[in-house]
């Protein structure tokens, strides 16, 4: 689960991490009253969306004088104007994809005087089975470019979970960041507090870009992006309450309401599968035959007719889908029930794309018979490879 920058900063503040003063705003009036309370003389108006790259982002249907989703305001009039310009608009950044995200919240923060912009993040590193800190002197808005072009400027340091955080970790990061004197002490404390926040709150990613050194020589987190481990949310009720459904993919939200496990992907072949392992295998074999899956969709072990219909609706709501592959192993779930669901869905919904169905398991012959008797344009397949080849060929043919 993701949260907004202002929510992440509130959590970090609880852990004694230095962040700027600020508050969320939902209307231009809110923005002005927050700015009044902060006092100024400069404020930053920041669009709150679950994506980075806001500063360099662009709004759809641009208006004159507009510059991205992070703006420096030098007067109350600026604060009101920027808030008015951003709210309700669609912001496109390199992380949102071409559709962008609608700005529904703002964060109004005191303006900081920046001497240096550094990069710092922490994540669960599967390779080392540890939490890794990543840092670089080249912070700011172009860290992806640094990683691609000058990877030697990025330091990774892992922390042994059994031993936990020690000040030497903080000192190594401080030296890698070129910090000196009191800043080293600040860094040791900062990394310790971030590590505590990361582990206690079950984060999976914490990215501070930029971590700044102010003109006064203080370290401060100027941006904060946090992801949490969904599997730990059951014990993180305060975190769960920060969920903003508006930021999530509507199809994924709809799917979870129906108990379907759905993740949207970039390809054009919609998949309906039961069981996560079979779903992964189906995505792999689609790739093997030269196409890309449009989604991961696990209808679960005991799906019924309604769930199969809901699954079709969700797959078909994705405009990128040019063909559907249904791959079901009838264990607990019987193939005739699945066939019934597919037939009902195909009759009720106008499925205009090729549909390949591979059934195996309990009552498979009955299921196959029902499909062929239905008179619907369903292409039967015998096994996984046959099914994948057929759907890939059909989609290529149609294109
Ligand atoms: P994003 O990474 O989504 O573009 P950031 O919060 O990192 O958003 O803001 C982009 C840039 O704007 C920062 O690298 C920093 O230079 C500047 N900035 C952000 N917040 C402030 C602030 N409170 N005061 C001064 N400059 C800021
Ligand atoms: Mg940033």
UniProtKB/TrEMBL annotation:
<keyword id="KW-0479">Metal-binding</keyword>
<keyword id="KW-0460">Magnesium</keyword>
<comment type="pathway">
    <text>Carbohydrate metabolism; tricarboxylic acid cycle; succinate from succinyl-CoA (ligase route): step 1/1.</text>
</comment>
<dbReference type="GO" id="GO:0000287">
    <property type="term" value="F:magnesium ion binding"/>
</dbReference>
<feature type="binding site">
    <location>
        <begin position="53"/>
        <end position="55"/>
    </location>
    <ligand>
        <name>ATP</name>
    </ligand>
</feature>
<keyword id="KW-0816">Tricarboxylic acid cycle</keyword>
<comment type="similarity">
    <text>Belongs to the succinate/malate CoA ligase beta subunit family.</text>
</comment>
<comment type="pathway">
    <text>One-carbon metabolism; formaldehyde assimilation via serine pathway.</text>
</comment>
<dbReference type="GO" id="GO:0006099">
    <property type="term" value="P:tricarboxylic acid cycle"/>
</dbReference>
<feature type="binding site">
    <location>
        <position position="223"/>
    </location>
    <ligand>
        <name>Mg(2+)</name>
    </ligand>
</feature>
<keyword id="KW-0436">Ligase</keyword>
<dbReference type="Pfam" id="PF08442">
    <property type="entry name" value="ATP-grasp_2"/>
</dbReference>
<dbReference type="GO" id="GO:0004776">
    <property type="term" value="F:succinate-CoA ligase (GDP-forming) activity"/>
</dbReference>
<dbReference type="InterPro" id="IPR016102">
    <property type="entry name" value="Succinyl-CoA_synth-like"/>
</dbReference>
<feature type="binding site">
    <location>
        <position position="112"/>
    </location>
    <ligand>
        <name>ATP</name>
    </ligand>
</feature>
<dbReference type="InterPro" id="IPR005811">
    <property type="entry name" value="SUCC_ACL_C"/>
</dbReference>
<feature type="binding site">
    <location>
        <position position="117"/>
    </location>
    <ligand>
        <name>ATP</name>
    </ligand>
</feature>
<dbReference type="InterPro" id="IPR005809">
    <property type="entry name" value="Succ_CoA_ligase-like_bsu"/>
</dbReference>
<feature type="binding site">
    <location>
        <position position="209"/>
    </location>
    <ligand>
        <name>Mg(2+)</name>
    </ligand>
</feature>
<feature type="binding site">
    <location>
        <begin position="331"/>
        <end position="333"/>
    </location>
    <ligand>
        <name>substrate</name>
    </ligand>
</feature>
<keyword id="KW-0067">ATP-binding</keyword>
<dbReference type="GO" id="GO:0005524">
    <property type="term" value="F:ATP binding"/>
</dbReference>
<comment type="function">
    <text>Succinyl-CoA synthetase functions in the citric acid cycle (TCA), coupling the hydrolysis of succinyl-CoA to the synthesis of either ATP or GTP and thus represents the only step of substrate-level phosphorylation in the TCA. The beta subunit provides nucleotide specificity of the enzyme and binds the substrate succinate, while the binding sites for coenzyme A and phosphate are found in the alpha subunit.</text>
</comment>
<keyword id="KW-0547">Nucleotide-binding</keyword>
<feature type="binding site">
    <location>
        <position position="274"/>
    </location>
    <ligand>
        <name>substrate</name>
    </ligand>
</feature>
<feature type="domain" description="ATP-grasp">
    <location>
        <begin position="9"/>
        <end position="239"/>
    </location>
</feature>
<dbReference type="GO" id="GO:0005829">
    <property type="term" value="C:cytosol"/>
</dbReference>
<protein>
    <recommendedName>
        <fullName>Succinate--CoA ligase [ADP-forming] subunit beta</fullName>
        <ecNumber>6.2.1.5</ecNumber>
    </recommendedName>
</protein>
<dbReference type="GO" id="GO:0004775">
    <property type="term" value="F:succinate-CoA ligase (ADP-forming) activity"/>
</dbReference>
<dbReference type="InterPro" id="IPR017866">
    <property type="entry name" value="Succ-CoA_synthase_bsu_CS"/>
</dbReference>
<dbReference type="InterPro" id="IPR011761">
    <property type="entry name" value="ATP-grasp"/>
</dbReference>
<comment type="subunit">
    <text>Heterotetramer of two alpha and two beta subunits.</text>
</comment>
<dbReference type="GO" id="GO:0050074">
    <property type="term" value="F:malate-CoA ligase activity"/>
</dbReference>
<dbReference type="GO" id="GO:0006104">
    <property type="term" value="P:succinyl-CoA metabolic process"/>
</dbReference>
<dbReference type="GO" id="GO:0042709">
    <property type="term" value="C:succinate-CoA ligase complex"/>
</dbReference>
<feature type="binding site">
    <location>
        <position position="46"/>
    </location>
    <ligand>
        <name>ATP</name>
    </ligand>
</feature>
<feature type="binding site">
    <location>
        <position position="109"/>
    </location>
    <ligand>
        <name>ATP</name>
    </ligand>
</feature>
<dbReference type="Pfam" id="PF00549">
    <property type="entry name" value="Ligase_CoA"/>
</dbReference>
<dbReference type="InterPro" id="IPR013650">
    <property type="entry name" value="ATP-grasp_succ-CoA_synth-type"/>
</dbReference>
<dbReference type="InterPro" id="IPR013815">
    <property type="entry name" value="ATP_grasp_subdomain_1"/>
</dbReference>
